[in-house]
């Protein structure tokens, strides 16, 4: 499910007509630490109070499938990941979405210094380029 091109902040001929950080109220940090590979799922709970257009679009994306990653939501909304993390954090506070940390082979979580995984990713990128 893609974002309709006819949105309040995106215009085919003019491009972006609203700064991305306007969507997050100028906030650059989410209340919850989210990874780009965190899986986001809609809970079916309707948030109390009005949502902004970007919150609504993010919630629709999360409700459209079993789970989506933070990176997928950012890509579909065409917003920077930091902005999407703030939006999803807001939706978590409303109880509208749940987030699960990414899991990797072996049942563990990715350590920031996992050099084996980073080397494998780098090798894969080199083969593609």
Give me some keywords for this one.
two-stranded antiparallel sheet, 5 helices, elongated, alpha+beta, 5 strands, 129 residues
Outline the structure in words:
This protein has 129 residues and is α+β, with helices and mostly antiparallel strands. Helices cover 40% and strands 11% of the residues. The protein is built from five helices and five strands. The chain has helices spanning 20-23, 53-63, 70-77, 81-94, 115-128; strands spanning 10-11, 15-16, 39-42, 68-69, 97-100. The protein has a three-stranded antiparallel sheet with strand order 4-3-5. The two termini are 29 Å apart. The relative contact order is 0.18.
Give the helix/strand class.
alpha+beta
For the termini, the CA-CA separation is 29 Å
- pLDDT averaged residue by residue: 75
Reported for the largest beta sheet, the result is: 3 strands, antiparallel
Counting DSSP H or I runs of 4 or more residues, the number of helices is 5
Report low-confidence residues grouped into runs of 5 or more: none
Question: What's this, in brief?
Answer:
Helix content is 40%, strand content 11%. The chain contains 5 helices and 5 strands. Helix 2 packs across helix 4 and helix 3 crosses helix 4.
């Amino acid at each position: 499910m893609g974002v309709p091109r006819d949105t309040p902040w995106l215009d085919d001929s003019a491009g972006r007509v609203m700064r991305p950080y306007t969507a997050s109220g100028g906030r650059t940090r989410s209340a919850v630490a989210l990874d780009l590979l965190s899986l986001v799922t809609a809970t079916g709970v309707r948030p109390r109070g009005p949502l902004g257009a970007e919150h609504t679009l993010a919630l629709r994306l999360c409700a459209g499938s079993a789970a989506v990653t933070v990176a997928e939501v950012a890509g579909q909304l065409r917003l920077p990941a930091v902005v999407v993390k703030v939006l999803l954090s807001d939706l978590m506070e409303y109880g509208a979405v749940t987030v699960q940390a990414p899991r990797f082979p072996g049942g563990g979580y990715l350590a920031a210094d996992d050099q084996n995984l980073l080397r494998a990713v780098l090798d894969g990128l080199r083969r593609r380029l």
